[in-house]
Amino acid sequence: MRKQEMISADQALPGRDNAIANMEPHFINQSDLYAPLNAKQESIVLGLGCFWGAERLFWQLPGVVSTSVGYSGGFTPNPTYEEVCSGLTGHTEVVRIVFDTTQTSLAAILRTFWEKHDPTQGMRQGNDIGTQYRSAIYTTNNEQAEIAKQTQQQYQQALGDTGITTEIAPLDEYYFAEVYHQQYLAKNPNGYCGIGGTGVCFPPELN
């Protein structure tokens, strides 16, 4: 099977019933990755290529409480990294971002999302090729879905004729990736980072 071809549910690996790892506190700010959201917090799950560099983009943003990396958008329960890389789970590499709505907004977070990867490449991101590198926004409520679609439309206008391939859908499941992937570039400062930018920015009127 070609790495850029999305599988169907009946082709997916069976996975497992239990999580593959118990998460440690966030390597940088020691936040609890399992903590329930409080009344001022929201979470959003974003895929924009290799999740090592993607996560670093977001833990640096004002108002972000915690970040973690994992797998979403596929069929296999509790997949391993090797299974996801095989293309036989349907998942993409994602970052889960918890943010304080009194300090930042989803639109501000999505500005970083759109500007720091190329959302037009389909099942790849730069030299990283495969369905696990596809662009995706997995929302956790209806308001987030509307904002995601609005920002996509505005960014499409900025791009012109090149079509955006980003998947926008309600979050089904988020599976934590293995502990060594969490905050990887803080633990390994010289590690690989495939995240760059498109060279196209949002219109200045977007909040």
Automatic annotation (TrEMBL):
Domain Peptide methionine sulphoxide reductase MsrA: residue ranges: 44-193
Organism superkingdom: Bacteria
List, in alphabetical order, the GO biological process terms annotated in this UniProt record. Answer: cellular response to oxidative stress
Q: Which InterPro entries match?
A: Met_Sox_Rdtase_MsrA_dom, Met_Sox_Rdtase_MsrA_sf, MsrA_MetSO_reductase
Provide GO CC annotations from the record. Answer: cytoplasm
Q: Which GO terms describe its molecular function?
A: peptide-methionine (S)-S-oxide reductase activity
What are the entry keywords? Oxidoreductase
This enzyme's EC code(s): 1.8.4.11
What sections of the protein cross the membrane?
Answer: none
Q: Which Pfam families match?
A: PMSR
For the protein in the UniProt heading, the enzyme class is oxidoreductase
Keyword Oxidoreductase tagged: yes
- List the catalysed reactions: L-methionyl-[protein] + [thioredoxin]-disulfide + H2O = L-methionyl-(S)-S-oxide-[protein] + [thioredoxin]-dithiol; [thioredoxin]-disulfide + L-methionine + H2O = L-methionine (S)-S-oxide + [thioredoxin]-dithiol
Question: Where along the chain is the active site annotated?
Answer: C50
Looking up HAMAP family in the UniProt record yields:
MsrA (MF_01401)
State the family it belongs to.
Belongs to the MsrA Met sulfoxide reductase family.
Role summary: Has an important function as a repair enzyme for proteins that have been inactivated by oxidation. Catalyzes the reversible oxidation-reduction of methionine sulfoxide in proteins to methionine.
List the protein's name.
Peptide methionine sulfoxide reductase MsrA
Instruction: Give the organism, scientific name.
Output: Vibrio chaetopteri
Q: Which gene encodes it?
A: msrA
